[in-house]
């Protein structure tokens, strides 16, 4: 696992907060894709608890949940005004799960409380008749476009940063999305960003290796080539690579260090430009930081299904266990998968979010 050499102030308590939030968001995401009942697994999982038709995208969701947790930490500890733009819009379960955990979902949809019935409805409505789509859609808090049409996230991020000097826009770019024409062109937008008067965009290129059925181009490139490519576009990449899926604590430390380093560098670039007054034209503007995050597709999901590898492959893209009602082994795997997040530690007996989760939830307008 490689990452920036910058130190971070990530304490053991904050590490536990990050991991707890990530587990909770992953649990809620899997529940949305699969369950219509038994949301807290109070009884052994049975076929009637699972939706008859399974539709959703798991592969990118766990990475989005991971990044979201870390951005929350930055918002709280730095009192940073931040906007989260997610390019992989088909990772809809992540956006809903995190909005629910921080309380935003219940503020908008007041029928959702903090109890077991609300969890049941949260799961049941996802990709279900009369419910919500599987993509990030207008029903998703904060969504401005239908999430199945990829390629526009970075352009939206720069548009939000222009003339907003205090704002940092963290933009997750999926590696399949990065192959689209609009996204490939949008990297050039740093040419228009003025650190004296504008906010900043922090691109987070999420390389999980695969599209729906094929490897992705940038993920196949060695790190040195990726570095040189983005340096040529005006960026200074920080790399966080998850080589061992089980080394989750180290992944949190590495990503936290890279994120802190990037935010410090953004602040330094802006400070230098603003102290100098009107920026003089320069043929060599300072490179802006970005993060290249390599993690397994479908991280923390089933490693194998029916003897075939899933985690870290294209098979994790949508629904890893798709024959729940026909195959008892799939049902048992789903239950083991969901219990691996230890929901009894994340939610109270009544289904409320554990008090510890609130430590990583931004409050008020920062949420």
UniProtKB/TrEMBL annotation:
> Sorted alphabetically, which InterPro entries does this protein's record hold?
THDP-binding, Xul5P/Fru6P_PKetolase, Xul5P/Fru6P_PKetolase_CS, Xul5P/Fru6P_PKetolase_N, Xul5P/Fru6P_PKetolase_ThDP_BS
GO annotations under biological process?
carbohydrate metabolic process
Name of a matching Pfam family:
XFP_N
GO MF annotations for this entry? aldehyde-lyase activity; magnesium ion binding
Looking up Gene3D superfamilies in the UniProt record yields: 3.40.50.970
Annotated TM spans: none
PROSITE patterns in the record: PHOSPHOKETOLASE_1 (PS60002), PHOSPHOKETOLASE_2 (PS60003)
Domain Xylulose 5-phosphate/Fructose 6-phosphate phosphoketolase N-terminal residues, every copy: 10-364
The superkingdom listed in its UniProt entry is Bacteria
PANTHER family, per the entry? PHOSPHOKETOLASE-RELATED
Specify the protein name: Phosphoketolase
- Species of provenance: Sinomonas atrocyanea
């Amino acid at each position: 696992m490689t990452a920036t050499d910058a130190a971070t102030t990530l304490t053991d308590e904050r590490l536990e907060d990050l991991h707890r939030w990530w587990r909770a968001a992953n649990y809620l995401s899997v529940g949305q894709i699969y369950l219509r009942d038994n949301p807290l697994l109070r009884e052994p999982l049975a076929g009637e608890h699972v939706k008859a038709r399974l539709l959703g995208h798991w592969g990118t969701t766990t990475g989005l949940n991971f990044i979201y947790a870390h951005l929350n930490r930055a918002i709280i500890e730095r009192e940073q005004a931040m906007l989260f733009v997610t390019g992989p819009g088909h990772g809809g379960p992540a956006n809903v799960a995190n909005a629910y955990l921080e309380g935003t979902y219940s503020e908008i949809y007041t029928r959702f409380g903090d109890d077991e019935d609300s969890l049941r409805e949260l799961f049941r409505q996802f990709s279900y008749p009369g419910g919500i789509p599987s993509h990030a859609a207008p029903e998703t808090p904060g969504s401005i476009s239908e999430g199945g049409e990829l390629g526009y996230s970075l352009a939206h991020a720069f548009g939000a940063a222009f003339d907003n000097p205090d704002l940092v826009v963290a933009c997750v770019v999926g590696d399949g999305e990065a192959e689209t024409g609009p996204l490939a062109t949008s990297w050039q937008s740093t040419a228009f960003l003025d650190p004296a008067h504008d906010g900043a965009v922090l691109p987070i290129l999420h390389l999980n290796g695969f599209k729906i059925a094929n490897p992705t181009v940038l993920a196949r490139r060695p790190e040195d080539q990726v570095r040189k490519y983005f340096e040529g576009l005006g960026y200074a990449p920080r790399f966080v690579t998850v080589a061992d899926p089980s080394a989750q604590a180290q992944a949190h430390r590495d990503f936290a260090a890279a994120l802190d380093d990037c935010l410090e560098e953004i602040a330094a670039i802006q400070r230098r430009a603003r102290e100098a007054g009107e920026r003089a034209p320069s043929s060599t503007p300072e490179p802006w930081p970005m993060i290249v995050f390599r993690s397994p597709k479908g991280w923390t999901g089933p490693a194998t299904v029916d003897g075939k590898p899933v985690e870290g492959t294209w098979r994790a893209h949508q629904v890893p266990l798709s024959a729940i009602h026909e195959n008892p082994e799939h049902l048992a795997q789903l239950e083991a998968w969901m219990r691996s997040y230890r929901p009894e530690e994340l939610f109270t007996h009544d289904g409320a979010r554990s008090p510890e989760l609130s430590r990583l939830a931004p409050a008020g307008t920062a949420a």
